[in-house]
Write a structure and sequence with these properties.
This protein has 19 helices and 16 strands. With 493 residues, the chain is of the alpha+beta class.
């Protein structure tokens, strides 16, 4: 098998990117759950508050033919306290001490006379009644946490039919959340929304005004501070969305060393000038098995699919030609002049690629290790059925080459372009991108029912084609065998 050491794998080319003048700089926040109740009738010293805060802070292996290691590139286009969490907790307790206030409910009898472009509610009171009917753990006293808000946003049909109402709240979360506790309290939403939802243009104008404040603050940051802010917001999103594998990849890359001395960067996440039209890339060394030769062949259709296996992403690692490479995630310097969430969006995409290290990593003898862990992850993500998982786990030492290759191919679809673009689309949903960024070149934007076809068209346009049994390229509308192997798309009717 012949491998080209300079051939980029999974190259993601951005659509034409126009220069944009940035308007933004949001405040860094983190979600902190207060588990210790505060008696606001008692005076607390700072030492006592610190004590309260402290209580509340809550294999087998399989063999598969491997090539020599070569560069694999995935590009995206489009103080005195022990730790920060404890410090935020104490600040929050102090805020509660001076600002504790019961929810001020509106008169429900007035709701019939209020304007609202939402059919289910007209004001903050009726909105909380509606939300409580969906999740009874949310009420006037609990408010809505980031995680709970993202769960509401995942109801894509409702969001699409109501102009991304909850995504709009999340877009300016940091400004609505006055006490910075990571939860939108009843009174905070009431202060933002007023006594009624109003018509859409009224609501949209409020969202844009709050979002503009965040953008203006972001613009004042230096380049390193912008990256640090984007990483904080990415971590915050991954935690709230439950994307634990991407979160692990983030912390792992941050802990590694960049040996190429980038001016802007943390660990193996850096900012530098990339090729024109490229917004970001994740570059590991890996083994690529490229169609129409060494690849996975679908037994029913004869379609041949290329795939790759991760080896390493440590800076300075050498490929089969002895050339050392700058590996890890690099974000294009143009993003420093873009909106703050564009930087986050590209990073979410690239971190999906960076989960590759979790699957079938070869050992020093060329054997694929961590098979049980890999199979478990594939099962948890519903890439494997219960029957398939039990079969592969039981027979991991006796799998045919064809079975081993299919496993590696399916694993790559988890961290490949389809999944990375879906992660991109879900992030844009979380900040109401369908409404506020429609027509732009930022990420994957579209109603939930359209996301799958948008992503397939993107991959078909900007990436290498797969091939039929005769070595001829297959257009995306003939690739259903690939895209239907498991449900990588997140929208469901």
């Amino acid at each position: 098998m012949e491998i080209s050491s300079n051939q980029p794998f999974l190259s993601l080319v951005q659509k034409q990117q126009q220069e944009k003048k940035i308007l933004a700089q949001p405040q860094t926040t983190a979600e902190v759950e207060t588990t210790t109740p505060v008696n606001t009738n008692v005076d607390y010293s700072l030492r006592e508050l610190a004590e309260i805060a402290g209580t509340g802070i809550n294999s087998n292996s399989i063999s598969v033919p491997l090539s020599e290691p070569h560069l694999v590139v995935m590009r995206t286009t489009s103080d005195d306290f022990v730790d920060k969490s404890q410090e935020r907790q104490i600040k929050h307790l102090i805020y509660l001490y001076f600002h504790t206030e019961a929810p001020r409910l509106e008169n429900p009898d007035d709701s019939k006379d209020k304007k609202s472009y939402i059919s289910e509610f007209t004001d903050t009171t009726t909105m909380f009644n509606f939300v409580n009917s969906i999740d009874n753990t949310i009420n006037y006293n609990t408010g809505i946490s980031r995680t709970k808000l993202l769960n509401l946003i995942k109801r894509e049909n409702w969001e699409d039919a109501n102009k991304d109402f909850f995504g709009s709240l999340n877009r300016c979360f940091d400004k609505i959340d006055k006490d910075q506790d990571g939860t939108l309290a009843f009174n905070e939403i009431l202060e933002f929304m007023g006594e009624e939802v109003g018509d859409f243009n009224t609501y949209k104008a409020k969202v844009e005004a709050y979002a503009a404040e965040i953008q203006n603050e972001y613009e004042k940051l230096g380049d390193q501070a912008k990256l640090e802010y984007a990483i904080d917001k990415t971590r915050e999103y991954l935690e709230a969305a439950g994307l634990t594998n991407q979160l692990k990849a983030l912390e792992r890359l941050l802990s590694e060393e960049d040996t190429y001395n980038k001016k802007v960067g943390i660990g193996q996440i850096t900012i530098d000038k990339l090729d024109p039209g490229t917004l970001g890339q994740y570059a590991p060394l890996g083994c690529s098995f490229d169609a129409p030769y060494d690849c996975y062949t679908d037994p029913d259709t004869g379609i041949k699919y290329g795939y790759s296996i991760y080896i390493t992403d440590k800076d300075g690692s050498k490929d089969s030609d002895g050339v050392a490479h700058d590996l890890g995630i690099t974000l294009d310097s143009s993003l420093l002049s873009a909106k703050w969430y564009e930087l986050v969006d590209v990073l979410v995409h690239e971190l999906t690629h960076a989960t590759a290290y979790l699957y079938f990593t070869p050992d020093e003898n060329g054997q694929l290790g961590n098979i049980e862990e890999s199979l478990k992850l594939m099962y948890e993500q519903k890439v494997l059925t219960n029957e398939q998982y039990n079969y592969y786990k039981t027979n991991s030492n006796n799998l045919t080459i064809e079975e081993q290759v299919k496993l590696c191919f399916l694993a790559e679809t988890i961290w490949g372009e389809y999944s990375a673009y879906q992660a991109d689309a879900d992030y844009m949903d979380s900040i109401a991108g369908d409404v506020y960024d429609a027509g732009s070149n930022i990420g994957i934007i579209g109603n939930g029912k359209d996301e799958k076809s948008i992503i397939m068209n993107q991959v078909d346009t900007f990436y290498d084609n797969d091939y039929d049994k005769d070595g001829k390229p297959i257009p995306h509308d003939k690739k259903e065998a690939y895209t239907e192997e498991w449900q990588w798309w997140t929208w469901t009717a």
